[in-house]
Amino acid sequence: MSETSDELLRGFQAQEKRFVERRFPLRFAPESPALRELYAQAKGLRWNPETDIAWGRFDPAAYEHPVREAARLVWSRRAWGTYPGLAENTALLIRFCLDSGAAGMDAKLFLSFRPAEEAKHLEACFLFAKLLGGYESVPGEAVARASNHPFAQMALDPDLPVEAVVAALGCLDDQLDLNLCLSHLQKSRDETARQVLRLIAGDKQRHVLFAWTLLADRMPRLDGKSRAAVAEAVRDMLERVILAGYRNTWLLPAGAPDRLLAAEALTAEHGLGASTAAQEKTVVRATLAQVRERLATWDIALPHVDHPELGYA
Amino acid sequence: MHETRPDRPTHKETVMSTYLTEARYPLELAPAMPDVWELWQRAKTLEWDPETDIPWAELHPERYTEEQIMAARLHWSRRTWGEYGAISESPALLLRFCLENRLPDLRFFFTMRTQEEGRHAEASWLMAERLGGYFPQPQNPPTVSAVGTHGVRRMAFDPETSLEGIFASLVCAAEEILIDAFKATVHKATNPRCGGSWS
Questions:
Q1: With a CB-CB cutoff of 8 Å, which residues 55-114 of chain A face chain B?
Q2: How far is B98 from chain A (nearest CA, A)?
Q3: Where are the domains of chain B?
Q4: pLDDT in tens, A117-155
Q5: Could you give the domains of chain A?
Q6: Would the pLDDT of B198 be above 70?
Q7: 3-state per-residue secondary structure call for chain B
Q8: Rounded to a whole number, what is the distance in Å from the CA of A79 to chain B's nearest CA?
Q9: Per the CB 3.0–4.6 Å rule, which of A161, A195, A277, B103 could disulfide with A250?
């Protein structure tokens, strides 16, 4: 297709070849009842963005043009942040399969559902942006860089224990994403925005529980080298991804995101599904404290950070 | 679990600094293939749960001879192994769609396909279990290689193999045969639980 995609495929090809998949014995019986329960919930709590959100009750004319413009940009940005979930969770599913046929079926079944859930979130963000005046497919350069990370490759890296991937993506990034989503929901007054955020948050809650439950099951059995890899992956995710503005516009390099920052402020002010920068800062600080505390129970240290926008956290 | 390759650096400056970044933008999301978009829409409305949407209590394994039950357990275990291949291998096609920035309809639809394959594997496993027990591996060693892989994952990650070629072989040929076999199975199945699994 293109030089870049060919090169990327060759990278995946090289990673895949380093695994020796032992598919049999192929065990399906639950190993972790809690994980299997999360899978059962995913099957039971299905929803459809097209039909389960009362789009017809949203009146764009109730908001002035600048507000609609701001909100459509915010919901487009949310779509850019949701999209990576399709590939990263697919890669994680393949990784669990490559690791073993005998173990991990609870995680595999759960992950077989997750890309579709991410696709539903993506569709919901797209539909709302469309209703507000149109989805934007191209972010500014700073956002494009900050929202594009090779998590799928990370998930298929045989040098990295799968627990490290789950800790970085699930326990840190998904947790922050969930907490931000709940903050947006709390601050939203528009009925449609609240409905979209409530449905998305319900799925995200399950995604975060999956990560913590899987780690609780596996961390006690990990050797020192793998535990160090878990700590390094989480630190890397925090310092190079989260603090670089992956989820929060105000963490992007100064000047770059002015338009988006203004849009988020206006969207928050009108209750259309965003939090202010100050509110988001509180969420990020609280999330880091929460994640640090939980990881500490397995003697995994998440160092404090000192950032000009966030402060010491 | 996996081979170690001494030619690869063992120390990384940071976890993610060694990977390549995809060319993701523009990220188009508007439907561009109406038929495939329609499949995505339809898949969302036809979700089902193997655990609760099949009336397992009506299976009545006691109505069958020991020999029939053994054959059925083997049959449904074999089906489970095959469906698992679609969880382990076919999702690589979604990665390929994403890396090559293919039309959004394909990406949306394929997420649902992965979910559906998971359900098929679970339904087949539950059927074998309720018939008396699932067999976690083939009894006959040559069968392992026959049901162990269909090679789609390797093909999906190979830039020399065109996506269209994979679809022609896997979907248009192999799965067309599979669906015909399913139809024949449903037609022949007299126990309503067996036919119901393939709705």
A1: 79-80, 83, 86-87, 90-91, 93-94, 97-102, 108-109, 112-113
A2: 7
A3: 65-196
A4: 999 999 999 999 999 999 999 999 999 999 999 999 999
A5: 29-312 (1.10.620.20)
A6: no
A7: CECCCCCCCCCCCCCCCCCCCCCCCCCCCCCCCHHHHHHHHHHHHCCCCCCCCCCHHHCCHHHCCHHHHHHHHHHHHHHHHHHHHHHHCCCHHHHHHHHCCCCHHHHHHHHHHHHHHHHHHHHHHHHHHHCCCCCCCCCCHHHHHHHHCCCHHHHHCCCCCCHHHHHHHHHHHHHHHHHHHHHHHHHHCCCHHHHHCCC
A8: 9
A9: A277
